[in-house]
Amino acid sequence: MSPLLRLAKSSLGKKYLMAFTGFGLFGFVVMHMLGNLQVFLGPDAINKYAHFLKSTPELLWGARLGLLAMVTVHFCVGIALAIENMQARDQEYAVKRAVKATLASRTMVVSGLIVLSFIIYHLAHYTLLTIHPEYRNLHDDLGRHDVYRMIVLGFSSPSVVSFYVISVGLLCFHLSHGIGAMFQSLGLKNEAYVERIDCLAKIVAVGLFIGYISIPLAVQIGMVK
Amino acid sequence: MNLDAKIPSGPLAQKWDNYKRDAKLVNPANKRKYDIIVVGTGLAGGAAAATLGELGYNVKSFCIQDSPRRAHSVAAQGGINAAKNYQNDGDSVYRLFYDTIKGGDFRAREANVYRLAQVSANIIDQCVAQGVPFAREYSGYLTNRSFGGAQVSRTFYARGQTGQQLLLGAYQSLMRQVSLGTVKVFPRTEMLDLVIVNGHAKGIVTRNLITGAIESHAGDAVVLATGGYGNTWYLSTYGRGSNATAIWRAHKKGACFANPCYAQIHPTCIPVSGDYQSKLTLMSESLRNDGRVWVPKKVGDKRAPGDIPEDERDYYLERKYPSYGNLAPRDISSRAAKQVCDEGRGVGESGLGVYLDFSAAIQRLGEAKIAERYGNLFDMYHEITGESAYKVPMRIYPAIHYTMGGLWVDYNLMSNVPGLFVAGEANFSDHGANRLGASALMQGLADGYFVLPNTISGYLAGQLGKRPKADAAEFKQAEKEVGDRLQKLLTIRGKRTITDFHKQLGKIMWDYCGMARNEAGLKKALELIPKLREEFWKDVNVPGEGGDLNQSLERAGRVADYFELAELIVLDALMRDESCGGHFREEHQEEGECKRNDEQFAYVAAWEHKGVSQPPVLHKEPLKYEEIHLATRSYK
Amino acid sequence: MNVKLRVWRQAGPDTPGKFVEYEATGLNPNMSFLEMLDEVNEDITKRGEEPISFDHDCREGICGMCSCVINGEAHGPEYKVATCQTYMRSFQDGETITVEPFRAKAFPLIKDLIVNRSAFDRVIQAGGFISTSAGSAPDGNAIPVPKQDADAAMDAAACIGCGACVAACKNASAMLFVSAKVSHLNLLPQGKPEKDKRVLAMVQQMDAEGFGACTVTGSCEAVCPKGISLNFIAKMNRDYFGALLRAPSKAKAAHAD
C-alpha cells in the first residue's frame, strides 16, 4: 500500500488529516481574531485591513480556497471516522460511564457540526451578505467597504450576539480538546511535554473565546459604536 | 519395565555436546512433513512450539486460555537464573548446577541439571534478542539480583513481572511463526486424551471449549507442556485454570508419573483470609532480600507488631540459618514458618502467619529505595489486604506453589511412551525434591528453546510417514471414551457442587500431605480420598450441557482427575520413607531438618498406572552421581 | 455485606441476551469480586440452573484473562487493577452492581460475560515481535540498552492484553494495546530494524479488525490495570508518521503488507 493510500485509509492517517487540517483551521481562527480585534483600533484600522485583503485577491482567494479545502477534508474525514467509530461497537453498554474522558473529548462530532453550521451562517452574515444585502452599501469616507459599521450593526442585535457567543464558545470548547489532540495525533506529545501542551491548549482556547466575544460584547455595552 | 534415562556418555561437562554430536537429525526438506502437537502455551510449550516452527516443522499448539499469552508462567514474579557471571562474584555453570542439585536435596538427575545450567546463559541471550526488557544498569548492561538459596547474584529480572515478560517473548515468537504459517494455534481447546497407535504417542483428543466439539488431532509426536498439579491441594498460587488433566490422561495411557509427592510450598504468600478464598497470592521471594522474618518469642502474644519490642521478637530464620538467614531455600523457610505457628507463635487472626518486616530496610535505605525495588509488590499486598507494608510488617504464610514431580522423562525429555515428550513443570526432571527460586523459568525455557528442539529430531528421524490419520480406530475409541466420561459427569446431577468436593479434597491433602507428613496421616488420607472420589461420582452436580461453553463441565473433569492423582501423590509420599526437600516426613528429622536416606531412596519413583483403584506399580530409576558427592544439605 | 447483581446473560453469540438479577448475601468485604461471583455461582448451581460464565485465570492481575464491565467501568471502580483484584470493600452494602461483558465489534461475545479477544493475537501476528530465532542471539550484553529506554520499554511491555482499553473507549479503539506493543519493541535497539514495517503492519491489522480510531479521550489509560500511558499512542503516531515518510517507494510499502 502506498504511503498516500495509507494516509487516506488507515485510522492513523485519517487522524493526521484531521490534525493537519485542524491545525490550518486553528491558524485561521487565530488570524481571524487578530484581524477582528482591530475593531478596537477604530474604523480606519479595520477598514484598511479589509480593503487590503479585498485588493489582494491572490491572498484572499488563496486563503479562501485553502480554508474551504481544509474545512471539506476536516468535515469529510471527521464524518468517516465518526461512522467507523460508531460501527466499532455494535451494542452499547446499559450503564455508561465516561472514565476520565472530558465532555469536550466526547462531543467533538457534535461540537464540530454545530460550529460548521455557525460558519455557514457567519459567512452568509458577513461575507456573502445574503442575510443583510444592505451591508453591501456601507462605505466609509474613503470609499472603502465600511466593515467597522457592519460589525457594529451586525452585533447590535442581542439575539445575533447570543448565537455568536454560544457558537464561538462551542468552537473554543472544540479547540480546548482539539489542540491537544492534534499534538497527540501527530505524535508531538511525550512525557515531558504532555501536561504543558494540554494546559496550553486550554489556555489558548479560553484566550480565543475572550478575544472573539470581546467584540460583540463591546458593541453591546456601547464601547464600540 | 526398564526405565532407561539414556544419559549420554562422557564426562558430565561434555555430555550435552556429545549428545548433540551424535544426535540423529531430520533433513530440512523433510521437516515440514512432520506434524508436532504441542499442548500448553506457557514458557515451555510456547517456546517449544515457536522453536519447532522456526526449525520448519508443522506445529499445532493447543491451550485452554483464550490466547497463548496467558498461561500461568505469566505470574512468575522474581526472575530467571543464568550462569552468566556478569557480576564477577564467582558464579559458573558448575556452581549453578551444584546449587540446583543441592537445592533439590540430591534427588535430581545429574546430567539433566548440568545441561540446564549450561543452556541457562543462552536463554538470557535469546530473550534479550526477543526484546525482553530485563532490568539494566545505567551503563545499559544487564543487572542481577540474588535470590533465595543462592550466594551469588545470577537472577535476571524484569521488575516484578519477569514471568510475564519471558512469556510474552515466547508468545511473540510463536505469533511470528503463526504469521509464517508453521504454527497453528488452537485456543480455548482442552486436551482430554492421549492417543497411542502401535505403542507410540500419535495424537490427542480435544474438546473445543466454545462449541463442546470433541475432535482428534494426529501428529508424529506429542509434546505436553501443561504445567504442574498444585491445584490438587485446592488452594495454591496456581492459576485457577491450571490443571493436571493432560498429564494425568497421558499417565493413564501408559506414561509413568515420577515423584508425585514432591510439591513445593512457597514461604511468602498472603495468608488465607476466609472460606470463600479461591486462590492464594504469592509475594515474590525477592522480598526476602530486604525483609526480615519474625514472630513473637512468647506464645499467644497478640500485641500489634509495633508494640512488640526488639528483644521479644524471634527472627527465627536468622537465628537458625545464620549464613543464609532470610534467604534460606523455600522448603526450609516454609517448614520453619509452620514450626513457629504450630508452637502457637503465629500472627494474624488465624494464627497462621509470620511477619515479613521491612522497617530495618526502610531505615537503612529509605522508603523511596524500597518503593523502587518492591513498589508493585507492596501495592499488590495493599490491594489484597488493605494494609500498607511500609507502615506495618507484611503477614505471610506458606502455600502450594510448584510441583517438582511430573511425568517421567529420559534425557531426551521423552517419556516411557515413545513419541510423548514432556517439558517444563509437567515433567519431573530437573528440580529433585525442591526447586530453587528463579529456576522454574529457566527450566521451562531451557526445555522449550534449546533442549526439546534438539532432542525431538532423534525420535522423528525414524518416524517419517508413520503418522496415522485422525480418523483411525484408536482415535475413534479415544473420542468415545472422552465423550462417555463427559456424559457421565453431566448425568449425575447430584446435590454437591464441584467446588465443594474440590475444597474437601484440598483440605485432606493440605492436612495430611502438606508441609509435614507422617505415616498415620498419609494412611488416613489413603482411606479418605477413594471414599470421597466415589461420592463425587455419585453426587456431584454438573449443570449445563456438553454442546457449548460449560465451565462447570471443564472443572468437573479436572477435579475428577485430581481425585485419582491425589491418591498417587499420597501413595508416593507414604512409600518415600525419608525426608528430602519439600517432602518432609516427621519420622525422619534431625533437629527439625530433613533427614535423607540415600541408601534406600536415592532413586526416582516412577509409577505405572494399572487402572483406577488398582495399585500402581513402582519402577525405580536409581540416581547415580558421577561428579558430585551426596552431602547433607545445610544452610546454617 | 449484601449486594444485588444485574448480570448480562446470553447463551451464545446468536441468541438474544438480557440482564438477570441475583442477590449476593453474607459477603465478606475482603472477598474479591470474582470470589463473590464464585459464591453466586455456587448458589445458582445448587438451584439447578446454569452458573454465570466469566473469564478468569491467574486471579492476581497479570494474565489478562478476566474482563467484565462493572457499573459502566471496565475492570470496575478501582484504579490500576483488573477485575480479579477488585475487592468487595470497593462497593457499598446494598448496592446494585451491573455487570456487562466487554463490548466491541472486534470482540464478539461467546457466552454471558465471555468475549473473543483473538483480534489482539492477530494484531501481534502482524508484527508484534522481533524476527529472531532461537540459537541466533548474540551475548545478552553485546548491545547495551540505555536504562531509560529499557525502563520505558518495560512500561509499555507491562500490558496484559486484557482489552479493557477497547472496552472503555467510546470508539472501541485498540490504540493503547497496539501502541504499547509497538513502543515496547520500537524503543529497543533490537527492535529497530523492523520498526517501520512493524508499525505499518500492526496498524493495518488493527484497522482490519474493526477497532475504532483514537479521539484522545484518555479513558483507555484510566481503566488500564497496568496504567499504560497515553504517551505510547503519541509515540506510535510518531513512528507511523516516520514510517510513511521513510517508505515512499511502493516496493518498500508493499513489503510491509
Overall number of domains of chain C? 2
What's the N-to-C terminus distance of chain A? 59 Å
| Element-level helix/strand string of chain C | EEHEEEEEHHHHHHHH
Largest sheet of chain A: none
Averaged pLDDT of chain C, please?
95
The succession of helices and strands of chain A, N to C, reads HHHHHHHHH
Q: Which homologous superfamily in CATH is the superfamily of the largest domain in chain C? A: Alpha-helical ferredoxin
List the helices and strands and how they pair.
The complex is a heterotrimer of chains A (225), B (636) and C (257).
Chain A: H1 3-9, H2 11-36, H3 43-54, H4 57-87, H5 103-106, H6 108-127, H7 147-154, H8 158-185, H9 194-220
Helix pairs in contact in A: 1-2, 2-4, 2-8, 2-9, 6-8, 8-9
Chain B: H1 15-22, H2 28-31, E1 35-39, H3 43-55, E2 58-62, E3 80-81, H4 93-103, H5 110-130, E4 155-156, H6 162-180, E5 183-186, E6 189-197, E7 200-208, E8 214-218, E9 221-224, H7 245-252, E10 257-258, E11 263-269, E12 292-296, E13 313-314, H8 316-320, H9 330-342, E14 354-357, H10 359-365, H11 367-385, E15 394-403, E16 406-407, E17 420-422, H12 440-460, H13 473-492, H14 498-512, H15 519-539, H16 551-575, E18 589-590, E19 593-594, H17 598-601, E20 603-608, E21 617-622
Parallel strand pairs in B: 1-2, 1-9, 2-5, 9-17
Antiparallel strand pairs in B: 3-4, 6-7, 7-8, 10-16, 10-20, 11-15, 12-13, 12-14, 14-15, 18-19, 20-21
Helix pairs in contact in B: 3-6, 3-12, 4-5, 5-12, 10-11, 14-15, 14-16, 15-16
Chain C: E1 3-9, E2 18-24, H1 33-46, E3 69-70, E4 73-74, E5 96-100, E6 109-111, E7 114-115, H2 118-127, H3 147-157, H4 164-168, H5 175-187, H6 195-208, H7 219-223, H8 231-246, H9 250-255
Parallel strand pairs in C: 1-5
Antiparallel strand pairs in C: 1-2, 3-4, 3-5, 6-7
